[in-house]
Amino acid sequence: PVHDVRRGTIEAMAVIVPALRWERPLWRDGAMRVAGVDEVGVAPTCGAVVAAAVIMPPNCHRIPGVRDSKTLSAAQRERLAPIIRRRAVAIGVGAASVADIDNLNIYHATHLAMRRAIARIGAHDHVLVDGLRIAGFEREVGPYTAIVDGDALVYSIACASVVAKTVRDRMMGRLAVRYPQYGWERNQGYATKEHRDAIRAHGLTPHHRRSFQALHVLLAGDQLGLFDGVPVMDEEPGEAD
Question: What are the backbone dihedrals phi and psi of residue 21, each rounded to the nearest 5 degrees, phi first?
Fold first, then answer.
């Protein structure tokens, strides 16, 4: 069962198990250091966007239970992340701060976080990245393949999604200690009712993304269409990008 954050219901959905079909041809061709890359934290209204790059050993076996972090509970992610870290050849984590997001916009800040994560893994032969092709990305990171829904389909990208999600959740948990009114340890910065009510009552913090127009509209009291298409949940959210 997967939590449907838009309707707040539990629905039985087929769980996609990520495969090694993208890594294996690269390994056969001599690209032994294949990095899977994914980002989390695009949709929240506060906090950094975080990316992870993970190189798993060539011809490895999949770790049971690893899949797109959105389909895992927090407990499952916390159990799997250290296993991934132990088995990985290299892991890099990169972030783009709220200042980066406000200066660059979320689209470019996300790619900045990815590039920072890739830079931290050191030498690599090929990158598998979740999403669409990115202008100028190859010039920065070398040969890469963009795969839509890669976090669900590609094993090394799924590993990266788990690592990135656990890192960002911990970051938001630490910020929640300093700003307990907003419930970030529960909502991770998503636009839950609890979070919206706290913004109305206490205003914005230095960690809110002030370039997000929705926050200004919320503070102005005009909520018409404010969160159309944005996940709104009162339970633990998945990572809706």
Answer: -70, -25
Sign of CA dihedral 100, 230, 3, 65: negative
Position 93: which residue type? V
**Cβ contacts of 210 within 8 Å, gap of 6 or more:** 98, 102, 204, 216
Q: What is the pLDDT of residues 91-121, one digit of tens each?
A: 999 999 999 999 999 999 999 999 999 999 9
User: What is the distance between the alpha carbons of residues 129 and 152, in angstroms, rounded to a whole number?
Assistant: 12
Question: What is the Cα–Cα distance from 73 to 33, expressed in whole angstroms?
Answer: 29
The SS3 call for residue 82 is helix
The DSSP call for residue 113 is H
Enumerate the β-bridge partners of residue 127.
35, 144
Q: Name the pTM for this structure.
A: 0.86
Task: Give me the phi and psi of 128, to 5 degrees please.
Answer: -110, 120
CA angle 8, 200, 45 (to 5 degrees): 60
- What sign does the dihedral 228-95-73-234 (CA atoms) show? negative
Closest CA to 95 of 42, 162, 173: 42
